Amino acid sequence: MTEFGAFLLPVVPLLFLLVALLLGRYPGCEAVVRLSERIAARRRRPRAARPRHNHRRAHTHAAHGGLLLALGLSGRAPPLRS
Asked: What is the dihedral sign for C-alpha 15, 17, 18, 23?
């Protein structure tokens, strides 16, 4: 019975979600709408209300990881075929 319980534990939330979707209910839909309205309202501020920054710092990015490898290999030609 414990194997069935271990199988059923992750399946139950999936079944609830599937039943809700089949009945036409979309869980979390209202939360997504409220969040998108809040983000849209934040972007609609008038230009006069926005703070002005006259001093901008130059952004510098150091290459690391895959970009470092790509930059290191970018100047080399492909190897010659023998």
From this structure: positive
Digit-coded pLDDT (tens) for 58-82: 666 676 788 777 877 777 677 788 7
Q: What are phi and psi of 60, to 5 degrees?
A: -115, 135
- 20: Cβ–Cβ under 8 A, 6 or more apart, which residues? 26, 27
φ, ψ of residue 73 in degrees (nearest 5)? -90, -10
Tokens of 12: 């139950």
Tokens of 15: 């079944």
Residue type, 20: A
Is residue 37 scored above 80 in pLDDT? Answer: yes
**In whole angstroms, what separates CA 69 from the centre of its chain?**
25
CB-based contacts of 27: which residues, under 8 Å, 6+ apart? 17, 20
Global pTM?
Answer: 0.37
Looking at residue 58, its amino acid is A
